[in-house]
């Protein structure tokens, strides 16, 4: 019996409803499954075990206090790698710093997307690639807060123009970049086919839009980015903000291209 890839079905039977052939749309980095065979799920425990066996980062030994997470250190400059299934499987690497109010803040340094087919049976290889990048991060100074950051508009524009070309286009398309205030920008995407069917508060509903919020907090000296669905209930046209697909902090001292690259990787895992 022929197996039908879910994404193939979605693109050909659903996503083009009312919008033409979605296969002719810009894919924006969304992976296409090679073949339609069943794949073996990645085993996070193997990645964690391999990271735990890596050499220490200077004086910092690896610890595993939380499932699917490995951390080196407890103070400012500490690094942690987390395997998360939100959206699709990926490894995020973060570094510990402090904001201007003295609060400990984990800033996102890198995202390693795990492919269901390309990384099949390659957990140890994934762990080694992640650790190589962790070593590079550890050799650089820890980025801190900036209370005088004035380039959030520039960063929002860069993110918007990048995501217009690189977004989960099999299911959504970009519509607008909105300036909410001087330090707050919102990127809006709409779902194809007049919305995706989804349960909302126990009722039948649909996903109307996807929003990416990019915010700079002057008092903290930090940048925050989070992405989430806007859903509605059938017939009532009441809109609900759903839990975030991601919610990450960045330092204004990080390179713009690095921040944009990591947000795009998170977005493409939707």
Cα-based radius of gyration, to the nearest Å: 20 Å
**Helix percentage range:** 10-25%
Average residue pLDDT: 85
Count of alpha and pi helical runs: 5
Count of distinct strands: 12
Oligomeric state as shown:
single chain
Coarse shape: globular
- Spans of 5+ residues with little confidence (pLDDT < 50)? 7-23
Q: What's the number of domains? A: 2
Order of helices and strands: HHEEEEEHHEEEEEEEH
Offer a few descriptive terms.
single chain; 270 residues; alpha+beta; 2 domains; five-stranded antiparallel β-sheet; 5 helices; globular
Q: How would you characterize the overall build of this protein?
A:
It is a single chain. The chain is of the alpha+beta class and about 270 residues long. It folds into two domains: about 45-140, no CATH class; about 150-270. Helices cover about 20% and strands about 35% of the residues. It contains five helices and twelve strands. Strands 6, 7, 8, 9, 10, 11 and 12 form a seven-stranded antiparallel beta sheet that branches. A five-stranded antiparallel beta sheet has the order 1-2-3-4-5. It starts with 5 loop residues before the first helix and ends with a helix. Mean pLDDT is about 85; it is low at about 5-25.
